[in-house]
């Protein structure tokens, strides 16, 4: 318990992160959440399902990352948290499985983007919002 109290104490140094670096880490957790909106035309009731799904996904993602932050803050010394970007892999019981999970989640996010982006572009093209995209409207939307 003493380690988490020391890590929560304000102690700025030249390695301190800015708001934008912390935001970049936190924002990456929500990129997969946004993939659900790209699949909205598969839903029976998108007006109800999208807000409930998005808010639920954001709540779950926030709880997971906050618990991860508290867990690392209570296990690892501040110097390692600041300097070592893969400290979670090093303190993990099975570091190899941690890295596999990291790569699989990145691959999953990439595949979700590859599937969702053409659907969004085709929907924009079918509505005629951007005239140059009209040839892309051909197909099933």
Note down, in words, how this protein is organized.
One of its GO terms (cellular component) is membrane. It comes from Loa loa. This is Amino acid permease/ SLC12A domain-containing protein. The chain starts with a helix and ends in a 14-residue tail after the last helix. The longest helix has about 35 residues, at about 95-125. It has about 140 residues and is an all-alpha fold. Helix 1 (about 1-10) packs across helix 4, helix 3 runs antiparallel to helix 4 and helix 3 packs parallel to helix 7. The mean pLDDT is about 80. Helix content is about 70%, strand content about 0%. It has helices at about 1-10, 20-25, 30-40, 45-75, 80-85, 85-90, 95-125. It folds into two domains: about 1-85, no CATH class; about 90-140.
Q: Concise description?
A:
One of its GO terms (cellular component) is membrane. With 141 residues, this protein is an all-alpha fold. It folds into two domains: 85 residues, no CATH class; 50 residues.
Model regions low in confidence, pLDDT < 50 over at least 5 residues: none
Order of helices and strands: HHHHHHH
| Head-to-tail CA distance between termini | 55 Å
Beta-strand residue percentage: under 5%
Keywords: Membrane, Transmembrane, Transmembrane helix
Domain Amino acid permease/ SLC12A: 16-131
Pfam families: AA_permease
Protein name: Amino acid permease/ SLC12A domain-containing protein
List keywords for this structure.
transmembrane; membrane; single chain; 70% helix; Amino acid permease/ SLC12A domain-containing protein; 7 helices; mainly alpha; 141 residues
